[in-house]
Automatic annotation (TrEMBL):
Its EC number is 2.7.1.23. GO terms for biological process: NAD+ metabolic process; NADP+ biosynthetic process. GO terms for cellular component: mitochondrion. GO terms for molecular function: NAD+ kinase activity. It comes from Rodentolepis nana (Dwarf tapeworm). This is NAD(+) kinase. Keywords: Kinase, NAD, NADP, Transferase. InterPro entries: ATP-NAD_kinase_N, ATP-NAD_kinase_PpnK-typ_C, NAD/diacylglycerol_kinase_sf, NADK. It is an enzyme of class 2 (transferase). It holds the Pfam family NAD_kinase. Belongs to the NAD kinase family.
Length: 273
């Protein structure tokens, strides 16, 4: 960061593994050097929504760097600094997700430090636990705003991904509904080009199969299923993206279990909270 010092700017270089909230809070500008993962980690610890961050893709040959400056900029660092100092740039505002937990952030554990408890579904211990949980009256727990902000998405599930998750979900202050699935994904507009799109996108082979089945029901179809399928797939996949500054979040229920006990509307949609 020698080029910033030429302008009399105080610079602090921090290894991404040691970067923390105090580093983000003390900076007027955060510059991540790496790929998208480095950018997301840097943004996660910025709590001031007006604090700028820019990403420089350090190795475009091995990293997509969708959140970073265009690929050619990694060899033009002096020009990047010059334009920043002269105000010759445009900002992109990106919405992020705040998380509220009943557990204080100081007591939360990393998944790397968690050993899941495994109970057989028909053991007395398991039945006793279920009965005890059902007999207890609901207790209003205090809530804590966690210090980090998610730029891409938040995924909620049991820590053992092979197990079905059971939880309550409320969309836009609606009535809470009990749900079972393999997980619940909440995405921002920035994240809509990542996991959200991968989860929902369809390919032309699937569309062709659907059109073929529809054709069997004597519906009017185009002469070339595959040509029409490619167009429909492209339009559908493009529609999954939404602006980074959108006030809405996209939610996705992964592998929803729906029956007479667990009822839920659409497994995907948009919400403000």
């Amino acid at each position: 960061m020698f080029y910033f010092r030429k302008y009399g700017v105080q610079v602090s270089t921090v290894n991404c593994n040691k970067y923390d909230y105090k580093d983000a809070n003390s900076a007027d500008l955060v510059v991540s050097v790496g790929g998208d993962g480095t950018f997301l980690s840097a943004a996660l610890r910025i709590t001031d929504k007006y604090k700028p961050i820019i990403g420089i893709n350090s190795n475009p040959d091995t990293s997509q760097g969708s959140l970073c400056l265009p690929r050619h900029w990694h060899t033009n660092i002096p020009l990047i600094v010059d334009r920043l100092m002269k105000g010759d740039f445009k900002r992109t505002y990106r919405q992020r997700i705040r998380l509220i937990s009943s557990t204080p952030s100081s007591e939360l554990k990393s998944l790397d430090d968690v050993t899941p408890l495994i109970f057989e579904p028909h053991t007395p211990h398991s039945r006793h636990s279920d009965e005890t949980a059902q007999s207890k009256a609901p207790v209003q727990s205090p809530v804590h705003l966690l210090p980090f902000r998610s730029l891409n998405d938040v995924f909620v599930s049991a820590c053992m991904t092979s197990r079905v998750s059971r939880y309550e979900v409320s969309i836009d202050d609606g009535e809470p509904m009990t749900q079972k699935s393999s997980g619940f994904l909440v995405s921002t507009g920035t994240g809509s080009s990542s996991w959200h799109r991968s989860l929902h996108q369809i390919d032309e082979n699937l569309v062709a199969r659907i059109l073929s089945l529809a054709s069997d029901n004597n519906l009017s179809m185009a002469s070339s299923h595959f040509e029409l399928a490619a167009l429909i797939a492209e339009r559908y996949n493009s529609s999954l993206l939404f602006p980074p500054d959108s006030q809405y979040m996209a939610f996705s229920v992964r592998e929803l279990i729906a029956n007479h006990v667990f009822k839920f509307g659409s497994p995907r949609g948009f919400a403000r909270k």
